[in-house]
Design a protein that fits this description.
mainly beta, four-stranded antiparallel sheet
Amino acid sequence: MSILQKSAGAPFICKVYLDFNGSLTPTNSEENQNFYNSVGNQYTWKPLYFSITKVNFTETPKEISAGTQYTQSLSISFPNSDALRTDRIEKIKTTKFVRLELSNGVSIVLGRNDFFQNKPLSILATSTANKTTISFKTITMFSVGVLQINDVSHIIDFLIPTENPNNFIAI
């Protein structure tokens, strides 16, 4: 597909995943938006419940002396009337990367603000009696890129024995 052709459809955000300890690396391929896209492991992402009508992603460019600076923002709202509300909010505030899965199968990621992440996401939680809104924000030197997930399930399956012993350590 040529970069000047019409893109297909207007996708919407259908899933949100959080990564608390993984790492993303830039792709090294001219066919895949070299540097802008990221490669990550499939096992570090945890799904986040949200109200599908209460999710909003924006990306705003700004010209500065060093070039273009992009501010990427995501806000997610969900009900907060349960006993685990505080623990959930505190866990979300430790997020390292956010993955947005779109209805067309493409995943984009927030948090990689340079070749590697050199500044964590800015995360703000605001609540009312009925809902909590989490806002993620990052300032980066490039527009949001696509996330390519490495499927390492064949490696993980190889490392886990088919017949697990009762305990792994003899005491």
